[in-house]
Amino acid sequence: MPVEPPAPEFEPSTPVQYLPGVGAARAERLRRLGLRRAQDVLFFFPREHQFPPPPTRVDDLREGCPATFIGKITDAELVSRTPGKSLFAAIVENDSGAVRIVFFNQPFRAEQLIFDRIVRLSGSPKLAGLRWEFTHPKYELIEADEADAESPENKGEILPVYPLTECVKEYELRRLTRRVASVLAGGVKEVMPPSIRADASVRLREAGIELVGDLPGISTTLRDIHGPPSAEALTAARTRLIFQELFVMQLALAMRRTSLTGRLQAPAMPCTAKIRQRILRRFPFELTADQNRVIDEITREMGRQFPMNRLLQGDVGSGKTVVAIFAMMLAVASGHQATLMAPTEVLARQHYQTLSKILADSRVRIGLLCGSLTAAQRRETLEQIASGELDLIIGTQALVYDIDFHSLGLCVIDEQHKFGVRQRVRLREGGVDPHYLVMSATPIPRSVAMTQFGDVDLSTLREKPAGRGEVHTYLAVDSWRDRWWDFVRQRIAEGRQAYVVAPRVGNESVPRDPSTESPDDLDELTLLDEVEDVTSVSRTFENLRDNVLKEHRVELLHGRMKPEAKQDVMQRFADGEIDVLVSTTVIEVGVDVANATVMTILGGNRFGLAQLHQLRGRISRGVHAGYLCVFTDGEGSPEDSERLKVFEQTSDGFELAEADFRLRGPGDMLGRKQSGLAPLRIADLNRDIEILQVARTMAQELIDEDPGMQAEELAGLRDQVLRRYGDRLDLGDGA
Ligand code: ADP
Ligand code: MG
């Protein structure tokens, strides 16, 4: 390539059309990639890099050794003797000689590999007579320009690979980005002070990132990402860009968190040793070390006059509710009200019963607010809440958001596995915010917790209370059916109870995300979702009742039943008057019967991982081992089988959540409204989790020390934070 003189003929703001070698037609195609100005090109980062071997000359080809060969097609011929049998052969030639390529029974090759085109081949050649021959090589048609022996593609250099649209060619873009980087990279202003880069480098290495020396300055970084001189330089450049992107995001989240807690007021409810003792005495068991630790985290925050905003995550049965009850009792002991919102009425009633039992013979007054109250009952309850006669209010989310509280100190939201966009409770004129505690049984993958939930504090229960039954999970094939039902009947004969979960109907294997709707619609939504399933569950029920389970007491439960009917069935199941409950996923959120240890899931391929895990949680509640058998519809996709295999092999909710995230991405886990974060250009939350962790820690430390990022040397970084996240996260200029 001829050496060109330095060309100061363009600047960051130059439209791409006027960049060397672009012109109007290419500019139009570049615009489709979002590249309008030279600076866009400079910051258009490669998706990955390739390390292609340089092409081989004919004399250097070796029998059976993989090689790349570039040349022009100088002869091509398709021979077809009998129908369905053909041979395509072509000669590919360059200045070092010629090779032959052959394809059997692939006549369409003749349409691609035509006379005079230039092609890059790769494969293992063998000597056929005097000529090297590649059978079924991989190939790519290229332009003359790219075939040039001096081009980066042919010198064994590391090649950036850009995310492209159809109409832009990789090699064209490579030339352009290199050129732009060589002219403009030197002039880009550094926003990350050397001290931050040096500190980050040390921590990244401690976190296991392979990094030689410090994170490079921005000019070197931009030059190296588009044209890496070595693998080390490439790693350093990539790491710097990934770190910077995540650091800027984490700074924004840390700023928001700090400014939120600084602005809002909540009642301080310190937990003294005496109060703690009094509350603990109410539980019929010792708390686990994990529960005690999490209670410490929570009470420490409730003792401050800023609202807590905390997510408590832990598997089904890990004892979250007990922790929440502790927090609610602390609120009441401090003279405030507390509320517990459940996603369904069934759950609300269950929480109400649990609390009533624990607080029997205490002075704490508990109220239940749910859809099946009469108008008069409801009016009375609301009055008691407003006047402060009730201390603890349990209810469904749809109702509780509308209440006027007398003095709400703590709001606990039991979301089971559903994360939603959360409304805040109504505040009285001049009232202060309550503390918030959200419980979730589907652990959030670490990376999601650090990004979408970046301004929420996290408490995690990993240890389960002792004596939890183990669940054996089997992924069944159809031929097991008879044997499995035998097994179910035996367990029932031993006195155990069983669940049968009917398949969902339709292709939607993932539960609809209610967070995209307003919480007021939630109850109705749950019902709508089940319309179709009702036919399916009824059919399953009749079939089992009349055939394999005809000796036993079988009952049906689904979300379309009247609340009293539902309640009645659940109560009789809990009392052991029903052997088998055939149900839709309504049991996923709710029923807590320790004697039920056998579960059959039909059409398991139609359920999401989180949901399957929730279902399994229903049979790990007692001292007896649980047995779960999952049947599929047969027509499951490869992703379905992958998911089910993970489910069979893993019983840890945290591992499952990470797997779910890998298989499905974060999209399905979160409400769309909630992921209000800018799309990432180069970082990948799955892959770059270690870098994310370092960025988060450093961002929080920096903001703790300098909440407004006012230090002179942080001006550039602060600009970037506000430009990228100011509007989205409502940081405001003063932050
Ligand atoms: P989660 O809300 O996480 O599903 P719960 O708080 O409902 O879990 O606890 C599940 C079951 O375990 C309940 O029956 C509860 O009484 C019991 N439990 C909770 N903590 C303990 C403990 N420390 N020791 C023994 N049993 C416990
Ligand atoms: Mg619970």
Automatic annotation (TrEMBL):
Molecular-function GO terms, alphabetical: DNA helicase activity; hydrolase activity
Membrane-spanning intervals of the chain: none
Assigned keywords, A-Z: ATP-binding, DNA damage, DNA repair, DNA-binding, Helicase, Hydrolase, Nucleotide-binding
Gene3D superfamilies, A to Z: Nucleic acid-binding proteins (2.40.50.140), P-loop containing nucleotide triphosphate hydrolases (3.40.50.300)
Domain Helicase ATP-binding as annotated: residue spans: 301-461
Keyword Nucleotide-binding: yes
A Pfam match: Helicase_C
Database matches in InterPro entries: DEAD/DEAH_box_helicase_dom (IPR011545), Helicase_ATP-bd (IPR014001), Helicase_C-like (IPR001650), NA-bd_OB-fold (IPR012340), P-loop_NTPase (IPR027417), RecG/Mfd (IPR047112), RecG_dom3_C (IPR045562), RecG_wedge (IPR033454)
Helicase C-terminal domain mapped to chain residues: 517-667
Superkingdom of origin: Bacteria
CDD domains xrefs: DEXHc_RecG (cd17992), RecG_wedge_OBF (cd04488)
Protein name: Probable DNA 3'-5' helicase RecG
Organism placement in taxonomy: Bacteria, Pseudomonadati, Planctomycetota, Planctomycetia, Pirellulales
